[in-house]
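Is this the right way to post structure tokens for a design question? Let me know if I should format differently. Anyway, here goes:
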């Protein structure tokens, strides 16, 4: 597909962080000052994950009240509409935005208002994934997910675990997600991004419907087989993964390996602004670097429709769309 054809292709995005994907225009408006591009985005020679994480400081300042979160929801769907995204699962960590006067439910409601307004104006369908952060207490995370559960099917579709995987392994969170499973809240888990393959195995055991990144499965055929057999989706974010050094070089990136293993791999941006990317750019990148063919681009989109946390009827509709292309 040419660049023009890739732009036009209807896309599904399942792994996109709100704070890392705010437009510079929105951030400048919120802060009332100009912001340099290098304050928000990493360059191609990003050295490490910590350099990457620094870029979340400024956007965080824009998300401290209802107006900021509502505006952010509207802004991200505007950005996605230019990229021809038809359905997106947008994730954020509610507890990073709460304060004495602004509780979890109010935080989620504010974002949902903005997203709903954006959906009407830009015709991009959405769901929200709430992220528990690894550094936060298990009690706080559980309470947050319980609050989020009241929005399940009304804008919220799932939970997630994000943050410093190398410091806090998945084994610390087994009980938390046991309770989340009992609650009936679906979840995806960041695993095998900058941590070991054990985190992926623990995530499968915990009952994750999807895995974020999953890079550590590389060269572990038996884990790949398990992921395939369980029908667990893998949310890959190629440009981000190379920037954060989740893999040392592009030749080590396991996209082709995962596709060959029959895994339900999907392509995502992770952080549109921090990584200076879009779905179109990601698809262009994997075509160029990994020789991904047109039918594989469509397969990646069908995979996303299959493993989305949307209602079945919506998933069927999306699947049909790609079968007709
Ligand atoms: Zn992520």
């Amino acid at each position: 597909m040419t660049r023009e054809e890739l732009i036009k292709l209807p896309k599904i995005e399942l792994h996109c962080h709100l704070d890392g994907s705010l437009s510079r225009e929105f951030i400048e408006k919120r802060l009332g000052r100009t912001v340099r591009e290098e304050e928000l985005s990493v360059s191609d020679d990003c050295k490490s994950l910590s350099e990457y994480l620094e870029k979340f400081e400024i956007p965080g300042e824009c998300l401290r009240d209802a107006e900021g979160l509502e505006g952010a929801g509207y802004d991200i769907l505007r950005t996605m509409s230019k990229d021809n995204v038809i359905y997106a699962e947008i994730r954020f960590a509610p507890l990073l935005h709460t304060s004495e006067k602004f509780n979890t439910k109010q935080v989620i409601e504010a974002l949902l208002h903005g997203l709903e307004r954006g959906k009407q104006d830009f015709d991009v369908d959405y769901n929200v994934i709430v992220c528990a952060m690894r550094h936060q207490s298990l009690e706080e995370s559980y309470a947050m997910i319980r609050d989020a559960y009241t929005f399940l099917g009304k804008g919220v579709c799932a939970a997630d675990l994000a943050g410093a995987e190398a410091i806090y392994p998945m084994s610390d969170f087994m009980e938390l997600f046991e309770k989340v499973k009992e609650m009936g809240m679906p979840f995806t888990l960041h695993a095998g991004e900058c941590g070991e393959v054990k985190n992926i195995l623990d995530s499968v055991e915990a009952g994750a419907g999807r895995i974020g990144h999953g890079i550590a499965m590389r060269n572990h055929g038996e884990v790949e087989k398990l992921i395939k057999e369980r029908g667990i989706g893998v949310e890959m974010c190629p440009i981000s993964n190379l920037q954060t050094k989740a893999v040392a070089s592009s030749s080590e990136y396991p996209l082709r390996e995962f596709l060959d293993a029959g895994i339900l791999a999907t392509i995502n941006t992770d952080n549109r602004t921090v990584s200076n990317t879009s779905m179109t750019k990601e698809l262009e990148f994997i075509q160029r670097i990994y020789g991904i063919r047109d039918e594989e681009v469509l397969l990646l989109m069908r995979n996303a429709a299959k493993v989305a946390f949307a209602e079945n009827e919506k998933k069927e509709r999306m699947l049909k769309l790609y079968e007709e292309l």
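Format looks fine. Someone answered above. Worth noting: The chain has a mean pLDDT of 97. Residues 40 and 57 are 9 Å apart (CA to CA).
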